[in-house]
Design goal:
heterodimer, A: MetI-like fold, B: mainly alpha, 2 domains, globular
Amino acid sequence: MHLILKRFGVFRTVAAVVIGLLFLFPIYITLCTSLDTPAHVFTFPPHLTLDFNWSVWVKAWHLYNWLQFFFNTVTIALVTIAIALTTSILAAYALSFIRFRGQEVVFATILVVLMIPGETFLIPNFVIMANLHLVDTLTAQILPYGASAFGIFLLRQFFLSLPRDYMEAAKIDGCGHLRFLWSIAIPLCRPVLITLALYIFIGTWNSLIWPLMVAQNPSVQPIELALANFLTSNSSDWQGLSAASMFATLPIIVIFLFLQRYIIQGVSRGDGIRF
Amino acid sequence: MATDGSLSIPRTARPPRRLVTTSRSHDLLVAICFLVPAFAFLAVFVYLPTILALVLAFLNYQGGNTPTPWVGLSNLHQAITYSVFQQSLENTLYYAAMVVPGTLILSIAIAVLIQRASRIYAVIRTLVLLPYVTPTIGTAIGWLWIYDPSFGIANAVLHFLHLPMSTWMQSPSMAMPAVAIYSLWHGVGFDVIIILTAITGLPQGVLEAAMVDGASSWRRFWKITLPLISPTVFFITVITAIGSFQAFSQVYALSTGTGGPEYATTTTLFLIYQTAFQYGNFSYAAAMAVYLVLLIFILTMVLRWVGRRAVFYD
């Protein structure tokens, strides 16, 4: 009995490792292709070891102005995070620490945003941007995400979970709302803020359809869009494409490896949403 | 004498200080000020577009400064009778039918498998979550290469197993399943983490009691674990289903922007994008979007109905 259980344990670990490797494999194989010597690229069956032929990377790097695309993406992400976090904290504060009539209705109005599918906004937002003469700008890629209903929801949940004593004690001591917000509420909700910031960052980095609609000029395109254009114009330069996708993917992978604790925390926090 | 001109009154004679230093109307003012920034953004970029989305469908807006006459229901009628649009609806439903059950089965299976709390399993958990955080285009390019008919690993594996090879993205029949497989690889990690959280949050008492009573682990899973995490499973079903209707990046990348051979991978959202931005017909696209939103709404209602029946709440 013992032996059977032990063997099952080993089998389970082996199966888990195989699955882990399967998930890693597509990224690994893109890396391989990008580093292959030209002779090894078009082989059947495919070549599976790393040749470390860096010349492909050098060539792909010089093909486009990747630094500009990185800069665009990071700028859009950081500015969006700054604006969205600010508006979300303020709104969540107002909806949790302050008692006023109609609070539930206001919150419901914000929640409704989460239920409307994103597609509804795409074309109208494009029309709005065109009328504001903001097409082909970084601004157009930031503004629609200036308020995050999800962020307001998360922060409000967090603020509501704090003991009422904090607020009572602060009020007795004569603390106004702004001071309470700045000195107490914000420092307390730091983990939620980090999770939200990461969520927005990853969302911005990976977004395609909105930039695709609103950014024709390469100087304001984010990296996903640049990569997509690279794909549609060079669909057979496999090595170049693989190298380019490594440029776009590796930074996020590095960030993920360092910050996975917060990402996993944020993902498991999503479990709290009940229907 | 106080500098503001008021009389200086001895401390003992002053009326008692109010416990709450902010009055009701002051509170309301602060609340409004705090809510205005968020609402400003929401009003312009969410509420207004929602109304505009509907209005656009009834006009004939072709972009720029062209005249936009009111055309009533003709855009909506044209959309629903357009064969490619009908096919896009089928494609979208086909895709969802593959991705939703696939995601559920895979994520539950993997979560149960890697449930142990040891170093190796933590590494595997990272690997499983890794595809989820990567940008779609970057990894889709890798998968395009995997799906390459002559040099890709997919066909190499099939060849090795003596199974018939496929032209994958070039084949009208395999293109959509290929996109679904990519989406499963990309999205499962997120759901695995959610299920892991749910499983580890279960009260151990019930499971231990069952173990003492001699229930096999298979039985424990089906009769206890699964029902107890059913709210979470339901949550994942809903977000995966709604998400699958909104899949764009992978369809765009894996079909190299074309929508697939014989419209095989043209989902409704992709067709909307094409109609608006490749053919410049914004109103027509808006009409299609109305249908898509309606479809998602119906889907949500159906899922809620199912949820009320199938989910076990304690």
